[in-house]
Design a protein that fits this description.
about 325 residues; alpha+beta; Ribosomal Protein S5, domain 2; Pdz3 Domain; 2 domains; five-stranded mixed β-sheet; 8 helices; 20 strands; globular
Length: about 325
Amino acid sequence: MRRRARWLALGALLVGAVVAASTIPSGDYLFVPQTAKPVAGSVTVEGRDEADDAGGIYYVEVRLRRVRWLERALPFLRPDGASLVPAHAVTAPGETFKERVAEARAEMNRSERVAAAVALRAGGLDVAATPRGVLVEGVALDAPAASSLRTGDVILEAAGREVLTPQSLRDAVGSLAPGDDVALRFRRSGRVLRRTVRTVAAPDDVDRAIIGIQVAQDAAIKLPLKVDIDLGDVGGPSAGLPFALEVYQELGNDVDRGYGVAATGEIELDGSVVAVGGIKQKTFGVRAAGADVFLVPAGDNAETARRYAGGLRIIPVESFEQALRALETLPEK
């Protein structure tokens, strides 16, 4: 009887441990795919009716949640397409997850206005958009710049060149070699500061210099029409391209041409489309939605998307104009 009691107690402890491991989250996170959703219904352009056709523009998001201990130990228990992400890649030291979510929402708000400006301008409307510099949205913790730059800084000059757009900043820093110092002039809380930071090598190209920051366009934008974009709690800038495509479609242009068109990519004021994160999970999400094509930023994003595409057609794009041309040349459906 005593032996049986001991075995029962041991079994109960094991069951309790498994239950705890399957429900208690660890300190790190999972990027989890979410099925792509249509943008229509979330975008309203003043005085314009939503297009009624068989296709549609889709955006795709990635759910971020704490990984449970059992999922951490046994990867096959994770959702299909999910990736483990360390906590330091999600929140900076001293930053709470709630604060990171608030930052992502602010990034989304900026992305919405830039996307609307790009689409309305492409539609021939007069958009007043004045670049004011390059907004720092994040700083790599292991980059020398982390001791000088903060989220919210607006870079105005780099290496002696005025930089009013993210691309102009890339061009200025790209003229240097990794390890070179770069002089920066930037605005912080109404004050203009100067700092010199050391560049580092890009992760994908050891010969290309970068500062180690995530950036976006800071601009004063005045739209000729009221554009409302509301995706609820979705955050981050990566839905800029599908936003712009949907706004342009609601101006009376047949953008999707009857196809289910999913898209991702941060869009800049000049129409450039730049890389985003979570592309693996987004590709899984687009496949789950049954979309016909997936527009993604050219380069590493496109390579990753093709790796997980299955039969999904991946279309790499570098600009909003290129995205429109690619869709125009799709075969009649």
